[in-house]
Structures are given as structure tokens and as C-alpha cells.
Amino acid sequence: MVRVVLPAHLRALAGTEGERELEVVGTVSLASVLDALEQLHPELLGTIRDRASRERRPFVRFFACGEDLSHEPPGAPLPPPVASGAEPLLIVGAMAGG
After folding, report:
1. What dihedral angle (degrees, nearest 10) is formed by the CA atoms of 14, 17, 21, 25?
2. Which domains does the chain show, CATH number per domain?
3. 3-state secondary structure 26-93
4. What is the side-by-side strand order in the sheet with 89-93?
5. Taking Cα atoms as reference points, which of 84, 68, 73, 95 lies closest to residue 7?
6. By three-state DSSP, how is residue 96 classified?
């Protein structure tokens, strides 16, 4: 099971609280985790990544094991602690301003 932590506004949209545990078949990557998350919560389609291009939306970031994984290829395997469920994948809304 892969653990995912969503920002508050996406938890509210999905009608869930706290972490989500997801069953991911095959390679545990950003793409496979987001596929599983969107299948479980179709209301999240288009919020984390673009529906057509499947690319990460601006101001959405991915973190795990103290690293920013936002610019990693979507099919690249996630760190073993995330794949095993020992560490969560954090989906974070980035802030901008000046």
C-alpha cells in the first residue's frame, strides 16, 4: 500500500480525511500513484495534473523522503520507502507571490 497525503482543499473535494492508502499495481511511480488516486476519487481528475496532457499542474508539487520529486519523469520509480508504505508521498499546493 502506498500512502498519499493531500492538501486540505483536495481532501475536502475528495471527501476524505488524513492520508489515503492506495493499492498500486506494477511499478510505483508518480504516474501509477496518481492513476490509482484518480480512479479512487474521480472528482480529483484535472486538479493535480492536466486531463489531456497528464502533466503536473502549475503550483502542485510532490515530495517524499525529504526530496522534491516534482520534476522527476512521471514513470520513474518512487523511492523504496514510498513504494513500501513506510513513507508517504506528499502532494502540496505551492505558494507564489512577492
Report:
1. 0
2. 2-93 (3.10.20.30)
3. CCCEHHHHHHHHHHHCHHHCCCCECCCCCCECCCEEEEECCEECCCCCCCCECCHHHHCCCCCEEEEE
4. 19-22, 2-5, 89-93, 60-64, 67-68
5. 95
6. coil
| Cβ 87 vs Cβ 79: under 8 Å | yes
For 3, 17, 54, the CA distances from 96, given in Å and listed in that order, are 27, 26, 23
Per-residue pLDDT reduced to its tens digit, 7-44 = 999 999 999 998 999 999 999 999 999 999 999 999 99
Q: Is 5 helix (H, G, I), strand (E, B) or coil?
A: strand
- Give the global pTM: 0.92
Residue 48 carries which side chain, given as an amino acid letter?
Answer: I
